[in-house]
Amino acid sequence: MTSQGDTPVGTLLQPPRAARRLRRGRPSRWLWLAAAAILAPALVPFGMLLARTLANAGRAVGIAVSARTLELVVNSAILVLSVSASAAAIGIGAAWLTERTDIPFRRLWRVIAALPLVIPSYVIALALISAGGASGIVADLVGLQLPVLRGWPGAWVALTISTYPFVYLTVSVTLRRIDPSHEEAARGLGASPARVFRTVVLPQLRPSAGAGVLLAALYTLSDFGAVSLMQFDVFTRVVYAQYAGRLDRVPAAVLATLLVLFAVGVLLVEQRTRGRAAYHSPTPSRPATRAAIGPRSTTVALGSLGFLAFVSLVLPLGTLVAWVVRGSATGPAPTIDWGATAGSISGSFLAALVAVAASIPVAMLVTRHPSRASAWTERISYAVFALPHITVALGMVFFASRFLGGLYQSLTLMVLVYASIFFAQALGSTRAALIRVDPSLEEASRSLGRGHLRTLAGVTIPLIWRGLLAGGMLVFLTTMKELPATLLLRPTGFDTLAVRIWSAAGDLLYARAAAPALILVVVSAVPMYLLATRDPT
Amino acid sequence: MTDATPAIRCLAVSKQYGAVDALRDFTLEAPTHGVLGLLGPSGSGKTTALRVIAGFERPDSGIVEIAGRTVVDDRLMTPPERRRVGMVFQHYALFPHLDVAGNVGYGLDGSEDERTRIAEVLEMVGLSGAERRMPHELSGGEQQRVALARALAPRPDVVLLDEPFSNLDARRRDAVRREVRTILVEARATAVFVTHDQEEALAMSDIVAVMRDGTVLQVADPAELYHRPTDCWVARFLGEAEFVDGTAHDGRVETPFGAFPIDAPLRGDVEVMIRPESVRVAPADPGSALVVDREFYGHDQLITLSLDDGRRLLSRMGPGPVLRPGDRVDVEIDHVVAFPAEHGEG
User: Fold this and answer.
1) Which of A117, A500, A214 is CA-nearest to residue A341?
2) Chain B contact set for A463 (CB, 8 A)
3) Distance CA A226, CA A120 (A)
4) Cβ B109–A449 below 8 Å, yes or no?
5) What mean pLDDT do residues A321-326 have?
6) pLDDT tens across B279-335, in order?
7) Contact between B81 and A446 using a beta-carbon 8 Å cutoff
8) How near does any CA of chain B get to the CA of A363, in Å?
9) Closest Cα in chain B, distance from residue A356 (Å)
10) Which of B17, B58, B93 sits opposite A440 (nearest CB)?
11) A318 φ/ψ sector (left φ>0, alpha ψ -120 to 50, else beta)
């Protein structure tokens, strides 16, 4: 793998290679105990789902081979494939335009191309739905009646907008780091620019583009909000409907188990198709030259990026603003929902705190004592993150209602589930920070008379706190947008912005959904901005 | 602890990494109030030995004692923070978030007046008044002295230094080496330092232990080691030498250059080592050798000779007389060392 391990997005899925350091001593038993305690809540849900399914094996087989299930498999596969393809095309194209050409306003385009990450998929879906149609915002403003997107086309467009930034970010980091001498060597051997791109650049992009597309595919499979609003029947939507609509929990458990298997299948396919070449790209001594594209191409490029920005940013945000304005004109002025805002922020804040604290011992184990066991510890954390959140939440509901009566529908359990789902983000960030700390510093502290914990507090944490902060912000950002686990696990009376948006949009009360959606985007933009501008030390 | 108790005692310490023996029956005693140099090529296990003593690695077997206290045996593994060992790391490992005073005072814990002790050790290393400076504002040599001050501040039983001079450029190295030695001697510290540089080991140490493949081959004071290595490998590793075949009997050895007295009670075929500084040449015509090459270093010169029988020989001598390639010379050898012939290697 190349270098995307350094970007927040890259660390999500690709556990960076085991550290090539000399193994330092043996990990203390306490470190292992801590790691086990941290991973248990992440694994229990899957065990629970499997147990439920196996306990009802006869019915499980019946459900698994039904025509309805086949339809879900086909729908999910179509959605994952179509979104992956369009996200890859848009992501790679936009990355090449902003990194390798001399189009005007490159810096601005770079920011704009990554921005849709801030907008949850269901907010984009909400905007797409409420923009078109006879009573849509566009008809209202310009008298033009856009078609209402529903079903597969709607889900496809909404999820493409939500996921292409994954590809865009991983590919543009690689484009910046590819050693230009390869391309120059190819040019020197007589290859045309097009051939150089096809035979030299594209193969080097493959690992990072693959990682980005994998993220897009898994995100699509996990997505609950957009497909629900678009009324497209894929696994997540039906699992939730089965759970919410029936007392019989077996179908939900069986379908969730199938969803997990589907996701594992996606991971395996990606592993199999990964290229075998290793591209080592240390930071090149000089940046690649930018292709000077002609005025006509520049116009086309600016047009494409402009259209992308319009569809992914201007249209969704404009629609939300228009709904708020329209709502205040026709009914009571929309007010800020302080309760739900506080719920979102406090839940996400606690989740970030727990995830970051828990990431420290696991990251210590992984960086300071690399071994097969610690590599598996890391891999499991990433796998939990990669699998659909609704399955984790559902498994936890089963577990808690059976064994933890007091915790069921408590804030504690919800925060715990948030933290397990997004643990990998904190781990990636903490790990990257920790690997930059020379272990001799910790050893120096030890031989100066301070034990493990006092060394952690006196040396390690002061040196990695920026990394901890970055991981915390990432967890905060993704938890803010989280929907299915919140729906399943929230305590009675506890509201978040995501829940408010979802229920209002479900009732077609777009004006009521628009205000919390805007607040969510604004609050999410703060950590995103800090992450993007923080100095890379 | 009396001066007779060794500061460090390692007994049959072994440590494996996978299939690699980092330490094999490593046995060593370091005397109190002295500087012991642990010398060996890279991969010889010297750094592992240091890390075992410091407590960062647990050996597979063996015993380690520090100042008479057992810190490692079959059941016991004292953690580093309770060994009273000061460590100076190869890259110094100064805490980048703490200033000089914060670094030096890190191990003090208020057991005595911290600020007094910090000032005291900083004065010892010649950095009085540097308390508020940050590590990145210091030069390489200054960082090293802060690292040393930090290690000395808690008055450890021993100070361990891992390749302490490898980060300094060649011009500064000799001066810093002298400073460090003076500081260690004045602090009456017991120090063990690891190096792969022969010259450094000989110049810095009271005693040198030569390591190879995880084992100690010879422990001796520098002069003894240089002039009486126990085998050919140690002899070669310590400095330039030429080897010729010889025959030994009755405390003498016959060589192509004549007969010489030897210490070892050897008989029969032997290998004879000749150090360049034991070879003296004087211009002569016709003489017995030809000057082939000359490297002039100012304080001395290294002459490559071709003897009339085709043999090569090196001679190190003072800056005069001036010799040029093509000159004829006479050769005289002061001193040789003989080894049993089967030790021949390389």
Assistant:
1) A500
2) 96-97
3) 9
4) yes
5) 82
6) 988 888 888 889 999 988 888 899 999 988 888 889 998 887 888 898 899 888 888
7) yes
8) 19
9) 21
10) B93
11) alpha
Q: Is A26 on the interface with B (CB under 8 A)?
A: yes
Q: Give the best residue of B60, B81, B155 to mutate against chain A (max A CB count within 10 A).
A: B81
CA angle A6, A8, A14 (to 5 degrees): 70
A12-31: average pLDDT? 50
From A444's Cα to the closest Cα of chain B, the distance in A is: 7
CA distance A438 to B91: 9
Percentage helix, strand, coil for chain A under 3-state DSSP, each rounded to 5: 75, 0, 25
Confidence of residue A13 (pLDDT cuts 50, 70, 90): very low
**CB contact A23 to B (< 8 Å):** yes
Mean pLDDT of chain A: 81
The ipTM (two decimal places) reads 0.81
Cβ-proximal residues to A289 (8 Å cutoff; 6+ apart), any chain: A180
Residue A458 to residue B17, Cβ atoms within 8 A: no
Confidence category of residue A293, pLDDT binned at 50, 70, 90: confident
* pLDDT of A491 strictly over 90: no
Query: Closest Cα of chain A to B299: distance in Å?
Result: 40
Residue A448 forms contact with B (CB below 8 Å): yes
* Look-up of token digits 């996990």: A222
Specify whether the CB–CB gap between B336 and B326 falls below 8 A.
no
Q: What is the pTM of this model?
A: 0.79
CA distance linking residue B96 with residue B101, whole number of Å: 12
Q: Tell me if A463 sits within 8 A of A441, measured CB to CB.
A: yes
Give the number of other CB atoms < 10 A from CB of residue A175. 20
**Which residue of chain A has the CA closest to B103?**
A445
The per-residue pLDDT for range A326-376, each reduced to its tens digit, is 777 776 666 777 888 888 899 999 999 999 999 998 888 888 887 777 788
Is residue A166 within 8 A of residue A87, CB to CB? The reply is: yes
Task: Give the C-alpha separation, A394 to A243, whole Å.
Answer: 8
User: Of residues B167 and B343, which shows the higher confidence score?
Assistant: B167
pLDDT tens per residue across span B19-30: 888 999 999 999
Please enumerate in sequence order all residues whose Cβ is within 8 A of that of A205, keeping only pairs 6 or more positions apart, or say none. A92, A171, A174, A175, A178
Average pLDDT over residues B226-241: 88
The edge-to-edge listing of strands for the beta sheet with B301-307 is: B279-283, B328-333, B289-296, B301-307, B312-317
**What's the token pair of residue A484?**
């299915």
CA distance B130 to B147: 13
Among the partner-chain residues A443, A450, A463, the one whose CB lies closest to the CB of B56 is: A443
Nearest-angstrom CA–CA distance, B161 and B167? 13
Residue-wise pLDDT tens digits, B244-267: 888 988 888 888 888 888 887 888
| Cβ contacts of A449 on chain B, cutoff 8 Å | 81-82, 107, 109, 154
Tokens matching residue A411: 């804030």
* Distance (Å, whole) CA A525 – CA A534: 14
Contact A441 B93 (CB under 8 A): yes
A446 to chain B, any CB pair closer than 8 A? The answer is yes
| Band (A19; pLDDT cuts 50, 70, 90) | very low
For residue A24, list chain B residues with Cβ-Cβ distance below 8 A: 56
CA pair distance B309, A512, nearest whole angstrom: 105
